[in-house]
Amino acid sequence: MTIDDNKKAVLLLSGGLDSSTVLAIAQADGYDVHAISFSYGQRHNHELECAAAIAKKAAIRHVVLDLDLSKFGGSALTADIDVPKDRDEATMNADIPVTYVPARNTVFLSCALSMAEALGTGDIFIGVNALDYSGYPDCRADYISAFQTMANLATKGGVEGTSPVTIHTPLIDLTKAEIIEKGMKLGVDYGLTISCYDPSADGAACGHCDACQLRLKGFREAGLVDPTRYQEGA
């Protein structure tokens, strides 16, 4: 794998399975990756420790931005609202779940866009997925396309054409099993990642929230054992 120092990209790194896979894809494509994570008042802030470990192993630059969305609330991830557990997939996809954080990807992508423009690049990577996505509206291809259009109207590089913005979504049409299989081929250490919305104080995944269930299903379908740490009995 050869990294091109002149081929910079910004990557949204959550510490989860998807963004870790996207990091491996971006590096395999030769990008000099600059990762950005967010401390946004999330109850599952153990993911930031995972993001730091992933960034360290990948030897990339990593920025954590403090942006407390818990001051707005409106989500089970940022307010005193129970995280749904043990739901079947039909229920997960029936409507937008309470774990949706209002406009989160729009806020995060806007910050990534600012970072990218400061670095002189228009390449941004995000691990959104339109199949196993738990009903989030800001994980769909039409949303990403609309944001990209806006970004090219709103930035110096986009308007002048010196660094047009491209939002890379290499996982958008993949199942969770396909994502895991791709990551394994690229050497992703999924033991460093966590997907749980409601982990224990020491960072063990609950095994019952939507994110855990989709992750576990993906590993089962890929014929692999999930190496993340789960709570006893989960």
What does the model show?
By secondary structure, the protein is an alpha/beta fold. The protein has a single domain, classed as Rossmann fold. It has eight helices and five strands. It has helices spanning 17-28, 46-58, 89-92, 104-119, 141-154, 156-160, 176-185, 210-221, and strands at residues 4-12, 31-39, 61-66, 123-125, 166-168. Strands 3-2-1-4-5 form a five-stranded parallel beta sheet. Helix 1 packs across helix 7 (176-185). The mean pLDDT is 94.
Task: Give the SSE layout.
Elements lengths: L3 E9 L4 H12 L2 E9 L6 H13 L2 E6 L22 H4 L11 H16 L3 E3 L15 H14 L1 H5 L5 E3 L7 H10 L24 H12 L13
Parallel strand pairs: 1-2, 1-4, 2-3, 4-5
Helix pairs in contact: 1-7, 7-8
Tag the structure with descriptive keywords:
Rossmann fold; 8 helices; 234 residues; five-stranded parallel beta sheet; 5 strands; alpha/beta
Brief characterization of the structure:
The chain is α/β, with parallel strands linked by helices. It contains eight helices and five strands; from the N terminus they run E-H-E-H-E-H-H-E-H-H-E-H-H. It starts with a strand and ends in a 13-residue tail after the last helix.
Radius of gyration: 17 Å
CATH topology: Rossmann fold
Q: Major beta sheet, specifics? A: 5 strands, parallel
Ends distance: 38 Å
Name the CATH homologous superfamily. Answer: HUPs
**Total tally of structural domains:** 1
Low-pLDDT stretches are none
